[in-house]
Amino acid sequence: MPEPSPAPAPSADRRRPLIPLRSEDVPAVEPVHYRVHHLTSYRYAKPVSRNYGRAHVEPRATPHQRVLSHEVVVDPAPARLTAHTDFYGNSSTYLLVDTAHDQLEVHSHARVSVAERRYPLEPMSRPWELCTPEHWGPLMPGSSLDFVHPSPRIPEGTAAREISAEVFTPGRAIGECLADLTALIHHDFTYDSGATTVTSTLDEVLAARHGVCQDFSHVGVAAARAAGLAARYVSGYLRTAPSAGGALGTEPAGEMIGSAASHAWLSVLVPGTGWVDIDPTNRTFVDQRFVTTAWGRDYADVPPLKGIVVGPPGATSTLKVAVGVVPEAPEPPLGESPA
């Protein structure tokens, strides 16, 4: 095993987030229970006759998250509302409204329990070169290879290779690499909700250095894949109620960037501990403030809502999105009464 090279010292304005490592000295943290509401509302300038849609709004079960309940409510009442599970285990909802309407509302109501994430020291300390597929071993799911290769929104040959070369230097520990990648994107890119759209390309984002969480996640995934690592795009939500303090001392208390709508981050596969999630938008490793809905190769696999509208010419629409992720008291064990 090669000796890890010393990590470059971060500049004062590119501080790396702390890596959440397991330790006997750190007491376990109880899961956080959330009530989640996601509203997507369209208003049409003229009545439309039909709406087809597919929504990725249901939180999914993960090693760190339990889904206690979920319901999708559509207004007007849909003629069809069905669930589907895709190749990566994401649940989506298909809807069809076939009566004339000038407004469409899609409500997602869920209750989830989110556990703490901490990683063992040994896997996070190994050189990143030992996290590429040739070192995975026979027990790693073959589907993980999908996240090594280019995808429709994250092609090969972009300027993300330069970011990758700066972060993934020879022999460096994978945990340090992921912390530095998080800090680099957070510092070098400016959050600007008007700078890009869902159709903006990765090259456009890399050139402008402006964008939103979706864009920053694509940059991070591209950089990790350029090093030969498996990286996936993750969609979900952020806690909307201000928290008592920043995660692991990395950020001040309060509301995080991207908490008013759907959020996105990325996840990198580290053998020995599994997928490690980082959020460049907020310069943090993903923690109990995050609720996961779906993951895929890039945004195109898991948009919150996409569809087709049938209507007269000039039936333009205005979109409103509102998200609430609010902590609630956990339910008492069966047979006990709340205090």
Automatic annotation (TrEMBL):
A Pfam family it matches: Bact_transglu_N
Residue ranges of every copy of the Transglutaminase-like domain listed in the record: 205-282
Keywords of this entry: Hydrolase, Protease
One GO biological process term: proteolysis
Keyword field contains Ribosomal protein: no
Family annotation (SMART domains): TGc (SM00460)
Top-rank taxon: Bacteria
GO molecular function, one term: peptidase activity
Protein name as it appears in the record: Transglutaminase-like putative cysteine protease
Taxonomic source organism: Brachybacterium aquaticum
Lineage: Bacteria, Bacillati, Actinomycetota, Actinomycetes, Micrococcales
